[in-house]
Amino acid sequence: MHRLRELQRDFSRFVLQESQQLPTGVKSMGLSAEQRLAIYRNNTRLGLTAALRDSYPVVNRLVGEGFFAGLAAAYIKSYPPQSACLLAYGAHFCELISGFAAAQSLAYLADVAKLEWLWHEAYHAADARIMSAAALAQIDPAAYGRLVFKLHPSARFIASEYPIARIWANNQADDAGREYIDLRNGACCLLLYRPDRQVEIDSLDQAEYQFLRLLAVGTTLSRTVETVLTDHPDANVPILLQHCLLKGLLTDFYLADV
């Protein structure tokens, strides 16, 4: 059993190009061990590259097939799969892009990749029953400050210096490259969530973004309101909370201990 585990380890390292040392114990059977393992290595690389393209179609469109293949090869070497589920593969692609020398001229690319992965996560997130406004009516108004809300499992957030939502929308299969986008004017705060079958990308102002981010990490309503109004005195908190309800972002709540 121990020898089998070592063979599996060495096989994995060779196929994922972590090692050039051929595993011992591989029988030729018509092909040399090196030729046989090269087939596995090539098929693995192609399969993982295809999985990355499926998760990052906009990055692929922006940089082209050849450049993307280079990104994928670097990613596969730096981040070998840890699970048999390919849906989970690619979570660190934006980090790879941030440090990829040939991509430094595309300053927005890492943020676009992050947006695509958050879209991927939101799409595959669990469903949840939406909380009704009537549920809040049963709470004593004196206890409102202790409310802690739970957001929909699909809710994801990203802020960028670049108009990444417009770049993403402008590079969908049916609407590619039709709009000129000025990268100098487009900082954005975005919410991604899946209220039904489709992922929505909403642009938020800074007060709404801060409000939702605080709620998402379990901050009480009183502390959230205090923080938001300190940073954004003109924020309309009741409207912000109403928007959360209308969007179907809130799924549950509880009262925090004093």
TrEMBL record:
InterPro entries listed in its UniProt record: DUF2063 (IPR018640), DUF2063_N_sf (IPR044922)
One Gene Ontology molecular-function label: DNA binding
Transmembrane feature ranges: none
Origin species: Methylomonas defluvii
Keywords associated with the record: DNA-binding
Alphabetical list of Pfam families matching this protein: DUF2063
Keyword DNA-binding appears in the UniProt entry: yes
Residues covered by the Putative DNA-binding domain: 6-95
Name of the featured protein: DNA-binding domain-containing protein
Superkingdom of origin: Bacteria
